[in-house]
Design goal:
The protein is α+β, with helices and mostly antiparallel strands and 395 residues long. The chain has 10 helices and 14 strands. The protein is globular.
Length: 395
């Protein structure tokens, strides 16, 4: 089967107009025969028909998203396989992605950003409470409606509680520009990683640029692990900057304890803006810390019980230029080198699906010395967006 206008999926959903196309599949508007109700249909590309990896991935997306009922999450209603092509039937959201908004506007106002943060964090809290880690939080997966609602989309590489991995040990799923440091090092994805990725979005929306760049996807992901977060513009007020800084801590245990905490703090700042009590120089106390081994246990999100410890006395605001300590740098570098020495890896980035992205970067990062030898040791960089970088041999 080739997706095209007029094709009917399982005798029920007629494809109308293609909305987006990417490396893994296509997104169509579709009409349910009989009811006339309109949906979005995500259909695998014909060249992947029958491919187990892609069929498993779309089945996992259906499992992880189908039971997530939250106003901030685009609903998944149905799923199936036709002619070897997996498909999902989802809520059709009228709006534009945050990435489109940022391309047009450059930045967001503090008020708009805090609203987006609060709504997105609410949606993430609901997913995490259901045992689902999104793993691909980025502007392209946040839809903004004309009514000001934010809809979280694309659970294509999400992982649920007790879900068996679909990639080899050491392979990392995510988009390099928004990849949490711990995932870049091959550690299990947790809800703290989604908080970090949302922090990258917040930084980008305030500064008009992402905090980490590089010539390749490996360079970008490596920067998440080893580089300090560049200072936000001095025009960003301290309370908002502190929230973003906390979300971007390298150690997951140093970030806000949950997405629910992020949503709560964002709404507090929104209320201060509305009431005129916003103090650009004031910094709140320490963030509630997650419990190690529970909040971020492998394969789980760690449910937040809603009880936050009393704030500590407000510390002086730390410099955003602070680099990791020497000891921390050594630990990080050694960890990366060990992972790189043990794992054969592939970076696989599939093109963005517009309103729904597919598989994204898969990577384990080599250490500084190894990285300098990559061209000689068999790495190649290709312009083809479907394969950005491949290592052909074990170092």
């Amino acid at each position: 089967m080739t997706p095209r206008s007029g094709v009917v999926l399982d005798g029920r959903y007629e494809l109308d107009e293609r909305l987006a196309i990417g490396g893994m599949g296509e997104v169509w508007s579709a009409t349910e025969i009989g009811s006339g109700e309109r949906f979005a249909a995500k259909v695998m590309r014909p060249e992947f028909a029958g491919e187990k990896l892609f069929l498993d991935r779309i089945a996992a997306e259906a499992r992880n998203s189908r039971n997530l009922e939250h106003p901030g999450i685009a609903r998944t209603y149905d799923a199936g396989v036709v002619g070897g092509l997996g498909y999902l039937v989802m809520e059709l959201v009228e709006g534009e992605t945050l990435s489109q908004v940022l391309r047009r506007q450059g930045t967001l106002s503090p008020r708009t950003l805090l609203d987006v943060l609060a709504q997105t964090a609410d949606a993430l809290a609901a997913a995490h409470a259901a045992g689902v880690v999104h793993r691909d939080i980025k502007p392209g997966n946040l839809l903004l409606t004309a009514q000001g609602r934010v809809k979280l989309t694309d659970f294509g590489i999400s992982i649920g509680e007790n879900q068996a991995p679909m990639t080899d040990a050491g392979m990392v799923m995510g988009t390099a520009q928004y990849l949490p440091p711990e995932q870049a090092m091959g550690k299990p994805a947790t809800g703290a990683g989604d908080v970090y990725a949302l922090g990258i979005i917040a930084y980008e929306a305030l500064a008009g640029r992402r905090p980490f760049t590089g010539a390749t996807q490996v360079d970008i992901a490596f920067a998440h692990v080893t580089e300090p977060v560049p200072p936000l513009p001095t025009t960003v007020d301290a309370p908002l900057a502190r929230l973003v800084e906390a979300m971007l801590e390298k150690d997951p245990a140093d970030r806000p304890a949950s997405a629910a905490v992020v949503a709560e703090r964002a709404r507090e700042l929104l209320a201060e803006l509305a009431a005129g009590t916003w103090d650009p120089a004031r910094v709140r106390g320490a963030w509630p810390r997650p419990t190690r081994g529970a909040q971020h246990a492998p394969g789980r999100t760690g449910r937040h019980d809603g009880g936050a410890p009393a704030p500590a006395p407000a510390p002086e605001r730390r410099s955003r230029r602070r680099a990791p300590s020497t000891a921390r740098q050594v630990i990080v570098a050694v960890g990366i080198v060990v992972v790189a020495a043990l794992v054969t890896l592939t970076i696989l980035t599939l093109a963005n699906l517009g309103t729904a992205a597919a598989l994204a970067a898969a990577a384990v990062l080599p250490g500084p010395r190894v990285r300098s030898e990559l061209p000689r040791r068999g790495w190649q960089h290709e312009a083809d967006p479907s394969v950005l970088l491949t290592r052909r041999e074990v170092l």
